[in-house]
Amino acid sequence: MAIRTTRQLLQDVRGVIDEVRKQAGAPGLAYGVIHNGSIIYEDFFGFRDVEQKLAPDRDTLFLVASLTKAMSATAVAKLVDKGLLSWETPVHEILPELSKDSKLAMTDLNIVDVLCHRTGKAWCDALYLQSNNNMMLPKSEALRTFDYLPMAASPRTRHLYNNHAYNLVGFVLERLFDTDYGTLMRRELFEPLTMSRTYTEQVADENAAKYYNILTDKSAYEIPACATTKDTIMFAGQSVRTSLGDLLKLYGSYLTSLAPTVPRRDGAATVTKENASLLARFGGLMGFKPTSNDVSTARSTDFPPLPVKDVLPLTSGHIRREENSVLEQSYGLGWCRTQLPGKLDFAWNRTVVDQLPVLGASCAGKLVIWHGGNMPGTTAAVCMLPETSTAVVVLQNSLGLCDAADWTCQLVLDVLFAGKPMQDYPALSAQAATNTAEKMNEVEAELEAERIPGTQPRELSAYVGTYYNSLRNWSIAILLDEEGQLQLRLQSRDDEEYLLRHYHYDTFVWNLSYDEMVKRAQYIRPAHFYKFAFEASNQGSVIDRLRWQHDPEMKDGELFVLDASTRP
Which family does the UniProt entry place this protein in (predicted)? Predict the structure, then answer.
C-alpha cells in the first residue's frame, strides 16, 4: 500500500473543509500550513467577492481583527529591547492621563497586565462597536473610557479578555516610539519581515476580500468594511489587514525564534531525507499513519527570526485561562496556550455545539500557541506548535453561522498529527450553524418568559430625551417617530436607530430577528442586552434615567442619566 504524503492527505480532505465552509455559510476561505519549518501547503475555497465570483489567493487582504494583538505585543518587545520600557514599568508612568486614584494605578498596572488581559476590567464591547462596523467612540476617548469601565475582578486575579485594554498598548507604543501606530508597526515589524501586503488602515486594493454576514438560509449578505484603523479606537487590537502569504512569514518567524527554546534530547540523531523515507515505509508496514511532509514537494523557506531579542515573554503563559483542565490553559501576550489534548475556543463555537471537541489526542503533551480574531464580516485563526515548527493559518471573509476558521484549523492539525480528521467537523459545523440561527428566537423566548403581562407604560412622551453615561461621551437618544412610536438612537446616529417595544412597566425592548440583526452587521447578544429599563430618581416621579445591561459582568447594568435640556 502506497504511503500518502502529508500534502496528499491535505488534498484528500479538501471536500471535508469545503463542506465545513458551506455549512457555516462562509463565502471564502484561505489557509496555509507550515510544518517542520517549511510552507508545505496552501489552499483556497469559495469567493473573496461573491457578486464577481472572484476567488481568494495568498495575496488577498483580510482584516484579521484580534490577530493584531500579538503583533502589537511584538512591537512592545522592541521597546523593551531598546531600553525604553521594562515589562514591569507601570503604565500610568507612561500615560499620565490615566486616573491616579484607580485600583489599577494603586497596583502599579504594567504592560504585561494589559497585554495578557488581567486588568480585571469588564468587557463592555458595546461601547465601541454597534451596527455596520461603526466605531462608536473616537480614538481620543479611549483612555478616559478604559478608566471608567467597571472592575469585574481584582487586578491580576482573573483572565478577563478586554479589547479596550489594547488601546493602552497602542498609546504606549505611540508615546515611546514617538510616531503613529501605522508607521511604527511598518517600521518595526512589517518591513523587517518583508510583509508587503500588511496595513493598519483600509486600502483601495483590487485583491481585498469583501465583508459578509451570513443569513439563516446560509446566503451571504454584504456589509460595510470594518472601520477600525490606526486612527480609530481599537487600533492596536484589531486594525491589521493582511494576507495569508504575509501571515505565513510572520508565524514562520515566530517558529524560528521559538526553535532554540524547545527542549531536545542530547545526542538526538538528525533525520535525513533518506532516513525519513525509510521511516515512512516502516510506518506503513506497521500500520502507522505518516505525519511528516514530503520533502520533495515542500516549499523551501528560510524564515528570519522575529526582530526581537527574546520571544519567550510574548509566548509564555502569564495568567490561567478559565478552563476546566489540569493541563495548561493560559494566556500569554496576545496568545492563548493549550497543552494537548485540550479544547481550543477561538470564538463562539463553544456556545453553539453540544460539546466542544478535544484536540490533540494523537500528539498528547505538545503545546499549541493559538489565537482567533473576528469582527462582523471576517474571521481568522492561527495555531503554532513550536516542537514541530508547525503553524496553521485560516482566514475567511464572514462572520458565519459558526466559526469555520476554527474548525478548519483543528481539522488540519488532526491531519498533520493523526493522518486524518479526528472529529466529524462538517457535522459540528452543521450543528453550530443550526443553533446559531436560532439564537434570536431564544432571545425572544427568554424575554417573553421573564415578561410580566398586563402592565402599561406611561405616556410615551415621558421617556423622550437624551440619556448620557457618567463620562458624557456615550448617549442614547429616545424620540417619538411620525407614527407615535418610541425609537432609540445610539450616540444619536441615524444609522443606529431601532424601534422600542413596550415590555413591562417602564421597560422596553429592541431585539429583532436573526437575519435583521446580521444585516445590520450586529453581533448576536444575550437577552438582557436588548432591554432598556427607564427609572425615576424618586419613585413615581419623572423618568430621568435609563439602565442598560450591555455587559454580562454588569449585573445591575449601566446607568444613563437624562439631560433635562433634551426633553421637549
Answer: Belongs to the peptidase S12 family.
